Structure formats: C-alpha cells, structure tokens
Amino acid sequence: MDWSSILNQSASSIISTTTIAYALAAVGLGVHFGQAGLLNMGVAGFMAVGAYGYAISILTFGFPWWLAALTALFASVVFALILGIPTLRLRGDYLAIVTIAAAEVLRLLLLTVAFDDVTGSADGLFGFSGSFDESNPLPEGDYGFGPWQFNETTLWPVIVGAVLLTLSVLLVWALMRSPWGRVLRGIREDEDAVRALGKNVFAYKMQALVLGGVIIAAGGIVYTLGSNASPGVYVTSLTFFVYTIVLLGGAATIFGPVLGSIIFWVLQYFLSNLMPALVDAGVLPFMTANQAGMVRFILVGVGLMLLVVFMPQGIMGNKKEMTFVK
Amino acid sequence: MRSTTRLGWPAAHRALALLLLALGLLALLGPVQASAAEDDPYKIAGNVQFEGEAIEGVTITVDGPGGAQVVETGPEGRWNVGVPEAAEYTVTLDVDTLPEGVTLDDPEDDSPETKEVTPNVPFAPKAVNFFIGEGDRESTAFGAQLAQRLVQGVNFGLMLALASVGLSLVFGTTGISNFAHGEMVTFGAVMALWIGGTAFLGASLWIALPVAVLISALFGLLMDVVVWRPLRHRSVGVVQLMIVSIGLSLAIRYLFQYFIGGGTEQLPGASAERIDIIGPIRLTRVDLASMGIAIAVIVAFALWLLYSRLGKATRAISDNPGLAAASGIDVDFVVRVVWVMAAALAGLAGVLYAYYRPGIKWDMGTQVLLLMFAAVTLGGLGTAFGALIGAIIIGIIVETSSLFIPADLRFASALAILIVILLVRPQGILGRRERIG
C-alpha cells in the first residue's frame, strides 16, 4: 500500500477550492445556526443560487465574471428575503422545513428539462470560466511545494476563494464582537428576553439570514469558479455535510467552521484513498472497492450523531456558550 | 426477466405498451447487433417496440465513463452498446426519432426518456426498459385524464399516509422532526427485496410483505433501544435530536447503498398490466391491492388510536406529555410503542412505494421524505389524522399537477404548496390554533 501517496492526497486537500467553498458555506451557516440560532436547512439552495447565479449570468447574460459573482450574491439576498419574510416569525422548525423544501424546489427547477436552455437541466452548465481565466494575473508556471502543487490556472481560483474566505471571516469576526452580534447571540439564547428589551428580533434575524446567505452563496460561486455547475451537487446531503462541518469545528465560533471544513475534507480524502487501498491489499476481504467508497459517507452520518450528542460545542467551542435553540 | 412473457399481450391493450429489452430475449432472437466498442466488457442493451411492432431507427445515447455513444435501433428494434466500466450510465432515448403518434409515457417517472443503469456483470447485457405509449395524449379527454390522475393520486396519497402517520406520531410524542423516517421507508422495501426478490430468498409476496413489516417493526425497536431511549434519558434538546436523526439518516442511507448498490431493483410483479376499472380509470392489480392494504391498515390503526388504551395514551402524550406522565401513563413505554408502530407502518409504505415507483433504490425514502413532511405539516404537526388528510391531498396534488406543469416538477408543486400553507395557516388543517411564533 502506498502510504505516501495516500497522505499526500489527503494533505493536498487542505488547500483546494472544494475545502474553501465548504468553509465559506460553513462560515455562513455558522452565522445562521451558531450565532443567530436559525435552523437553515437550505444550505444547498443558497449554494445553488450562488453557483447557478454566477454561471447563468455569464452564459445567458454575457456578464464578466466579477459582475456575475455580484449578481449571484444579489440573488442570494433575494432568496434569503423570500425565505425569511414568511418564516422568521414562526417557530424554529418551520424555518427548517421551509428552507429544506425551498432548496429542493430550486434543485428540481434546475433539473427540469423545461428550462434546459438556461439551466442545462441534468447536465448542468459548463464552459463559463473564460472571463475568469482571462483575469488571471499569474504568469504561466508551476507553483507550490510538497503536496500542494498548482499551475497558474488551478491556483487562481484558490487565491480568489481564499481572499473571499478571509474577508468573510474578518467580517463575521468584526460583526460578532459588535453590539449587533451580541443582540444576535442574545436572540439565540432567549428570544423573548431580547424582545422584552425592545429589540426588533425579526429584523435582526432577517439581517443574519441575509448575511449568512450571502456568504454561503459565495461558497457556491467558489465551488464553480474553475469548473462547472451541476444540479447533482446541490442535494440535501450537501446541507447535512455542511452541518457536520460546522458542528465539528464549533458552530458558535468564528474560525471553527474553517477548521471543520479542513478536517472534514482531509478525512474524506484520507478515507477515500485508504479504504480502496485496504481492499486492494486484501485487508478487508468482505468488501468490494465500491463498498469501501461508501464507508466514508456512513462515517459522516455516525460522526454527526456522535458530535451533536457528545460534543455539541465542537472542537473550538465553549461548552457554556453552545446552548441549542429550542 | 419475467417481463418477456408480456410480449404476447393482445393488441387490444392499446393505451400503454410496455416495451422491454431483456437478456433472455436477446439470446433467443439471435446474435446481438454489433455497435460501438465490441471489446468493452460491459454491455447495455434494449429493444424498442410499440404494441409488438419493432421500431427501427430510434436514436439512443449512452453517456457515462468512457464518453457518450450514440446508436440506432436495428430492424428488430434492438440496440446495444459496449461500455468500459461497471459504473452508472445515462441512457437517453431521442423522442424526436420515434414515429408519429408514439411517445414515451411513464407516469411514474419524472423523465421517461432517460434511464440510469449500472452494468455489473461483464458480457451480460444490462437491459434498459422504456415505457412507450401512444403519443397523441391530447386526444384523451381532459376529464378522463383528470379522473385517472385523481385515482392514482389517492393511491399515492394512501401510501404516503401510511408513512406519514408514524412521522407525525413520533413528532407529537417526542418532538423529533425525524429525518431518518425516509430510511425507515426504504428499510421495508429492502427487506421485502431480500425476502421476496427472485435473486435473493425468493419467497412469495404474501410471506415477504408481512415478514418485511415485522422486521421493520424490530428495526424501530432497535433504533429506540440503541439511539432514542438513551437520548431521552440524557434529555437532549429537540434541535440536537433532529440533527441526530439527520446523521442517522445519512448513515443508514449509505449503508443501503453499501449493501444494494446504486441501481434500481424490482420486486416480483412490479410491472403488472393495467386493467379497466370504471370508465377511463385503468389500474394494475398491484395498484388495487396496494390501495386495499393501505386502507385496511389505516382504518385498523385509526381504531387502535381511538379506542385502545395504548392509543389513548399515545394521544394523551401528544397533547401534553407532562400531564400524561402525571396521570400515570408510562411515557417511556408508549414512546417505544410509537417508534415500533411508526417503523412498521413506514416499512409497509416502503413496500407499496416500491411497487408504485416502481423499483427499490437506496435513496427512495429520501425522495419522499419532504413529501411526508409536507403532508404532516399540511395536516397539522403532531396530529395523526391530520397527517392522513395531508398525505392524500399531497398525493393528489403530485399526481394531478403533472397535467399542468412538466412531470419532473410535480414534487416541486407539492413542496411549493407546503410553503404557501405555512404562510396562510401555519398550524395546518387539523392543528390547533396556538402560538407558534
């Protein structure tokens, strides 16, 4: 078994657009779920708005990539308002059901052949990275060291993603230590108490939903930057993976979601390389290579259950702070 | 493939001719037509016919690992391609190349022109079936179509109701929005497959069905013993419980894929022919049996809930758990019974759903999970009879909406209605008006 290749692959996933995209989504969900106590189960929907908003703006409207990205972020604001206005006054689990249903409706709309011209239905959209590649200032060549090897086309989306992630983390960090952030955490701990202090709880929740939604959509954009937009990605499992990431790192922390994403993807790559290798080496005679590939997904589910019961505050969190919303 | 026997149908069955491509058939009819890469180890094959007449020159595209391949059906309506890997391939029939007046028609499928297959046995062609019917559907009167859809909607709704009452009772007694309920539906179907599937134990359906339901009930008991009861005793919050159920759902779902793979498996008798019932309404015997079983079980369940001591205790806990416990009801025991009942009903619904779709797939329960949530919310969270009404409404909406909007959006219509209901009447149809904000 080639341990060095397995470890190399796992380490390389620390810096990749996938990890950065999931980290962005997790930071956004951290604002929703960790800071404001909003049960947003539509993470996949927000990411799809980002990804398809970006791709459709370029392919259908011919925007340059930066304008397309802004359009996609604006679309996510609209999506957040549509979801929030009717549900934020209701009990928490209603928001959960509406957001998960809205994300599914959106996915089915992207999947239907009725709008094939715009959405590409089951094939998704591709071939829209032209203006993004042209904007690449990096000179041709190889970059990186050790397991992290890039060329100029693969490094550019990573740089853009990392800049977006850094800005998002800084923004959330600054907001959460402001009076606004304190009110938000107050709403998470005891909504009625905050209301009794004369705060407009609905407005705060709405602002948090929009802020987190925009960051999640940015994750969707980063995910598609150098590649394609495919409806098969934005399924409810994606939402659950992001929840796992957020709870792993620490939902109520600023940097926890980023750490969670890195650990999640390193483990995913590690297992996806290790398990088939173990089967090849004859260590797991009762498994086929396909079944070995399934194991890591089963482990995500088991890990999520154990995390939420035994370590709900996550790796970086403070056990006192993470009291779950009712 | 049992379906080959069907080629001898009387031509009188005009409305829907089921077209099948089958391995045995290909072997009978002589050498397979050569097409793309002959030396590829895996084969996907099919036979396009309409009412026993072969259709020549239909374009079929097979896409997946190794690239897309395009073939045309030969003089006997047959086609076949070789593919390099045992992976999932998308087979698309170009509807434009079908003759005038013939189209793909499969009301149970979102996109009848595409099928996904995973060839797994080298050199044994994997059969792909398309459902071909008469193309001029406009000629069928709208009223007749509506009647047919309504009956199918009730059929789907009854199946959904079986699954949803358990979800609703669990919510009512424990406060858990159980995202793993879809997997309990799949569990019943997978058990029925392992007991009754021809490739497995091959027991008759009349044994497989009750045994599958029984094992589902044990599965519910197991989940309560291993997961839910310990969590009750740790007094874990409802949001945490919901996330636990999400983790459980992921774990079980991928366990199903681990054991049965990513393809679709059929139960015996899944492709029965339709017979005339009343006027324009045509159903298969399986549909009729499914509705009969669902109604009988729902009525029995309703009587249990209304008149038995345990049923009364269940409703009392749904109403007010604290008060119920104070009046001497053993809440822990009743909740365990609720989990067992919910799992048994979901398992039964899974078997019926396997016939309705038709087919058993690792994520089939997840596909209807949101429809169950919609049914439960529509009827009123936590009320068993609300879930019943909600499920039938959702079933009818799903089936009839495809008369007005593209068929692949019919699930979306039910979810959109769920969102609207929450705006207008968030407590649902039978829910009590109480403060939910």
Textual characterization of the structure:
The complex is a heterodimer of chains A (326) and B (437). With 326 residues, chain A is mainly alpha-helical. Chain A has a domain of 219 residues. Chain A has a two-stranded antiparallel sheet with strand order 1-2. In chain A, a hairpin with a 2-residue loop joins strand 1 and strand 2. The termini of chain A are far apart. Helix content of chain B is 51%, strand content 12%. In chain B, strand 3 and strand 4 form a beta hairpin. Chain B has 2 domains: 138 residues, Immunoglobulins (Immunoglobulin-like), CATH 2.60.40.10; 281 residues, ABC transporter involved in vitamin B12 uptake, BtuC (Orthogonal Bundle), CATH 1.10.3470. Chain B is globular. The chains are: A mainly alpha (326), B alpha+beta (437). At the A-B interface, helix 5, helix 12 and helix 14 of A face helix 5, helix 10 and helix 12 of B.
Structural class by SSE content of chain B: alpha+beta
Mean pLDDT of chain A: 90
- Proportion of residues in β-strands of chain B: 5-15%
Distance between the termini of chain A: 49 Å
Concise overview:
The complex is a heterodimer of chains A (326) and B (437). Chain A is mostly helical and 326 residues long.
Strand-helix topology:
The complex is a heterodimer of chains A (326) and B (437).
Chain A (H helix, E strand, L loop, with lengths): L2 H10 L4 H19 L7 H17 L5 H23 L4 H20 L4 H4 L10 H5 L7 E4 L2 E4 H25 L2 H11 L1 H6 L4 H24 L11 H14 L6 H25 L8 H22 L16
Antiparallel strand pairs in A: 1-2
Chain B lengths: L15 E4 L3 H6 L13 E6 L1 E2 L2 E2 L4 E5 L5 E4 L5 E6 L5 E5 L8 E3 L9 E4 L8 E2 L2 E5 L7 H33 L6 H16 L8 H29 L4 H23 L13 E3 L5 E3 H23 L1 H11 L1 H6 L4 H26 L7 H16 L4 H18 L8 H15 L13
Parallel strand pairs in B: 2-11
Antiparallel strand pairs in B: 1-12, 2-7, 3-4, 5-6, 5-8, 8-10, 9-12, 13-14
Helix pairs in contact in B: 2-6, 2-7, 2-9, 2-10, 2-11, 3-4, 3-5, 3-9, 3-10, 4-9, 6-7, 6-9, 7-9, 10-11, 10-12, 11-12
